[in-house]
């Protein structure tokens, strides 16, 4: 019986540093996830996506759509869920890399330009999808795609 308690004590004693290390790592990951949200708040990301969708609506409906979505979203809950998910999903090194990159001037410039990039490509993507659906519906054999110009 004494041997059992000693064995259990040794196993427990050896695992405590691992738990402490994991707790420290979780704390660091949470700090980095919160830092990421200072750099790219969830609210801003949702707002960018909503504005992009709104641009496809008639101008008279755009403001109403944006207001409806804004009213429907619980941004605090979304941010908490996002931080918790980042902590659970990403390693400390990955979160640090995200903070380093997304906090850089280059990444901030890219983030501002991405909606413009997407806005320019979206009509062509929709046109291609519509064509593919029409070809499928009417049994047309699609023409081979033209090679991309470089």
From TrEMBL:
Residues 1-20 form the signal peptide. The keyword Signal applies. Keywords: Signal. This is DUF2059 domain-containing protein. It comes from Micavibrio aeruginosavorus (strain ARL-13).
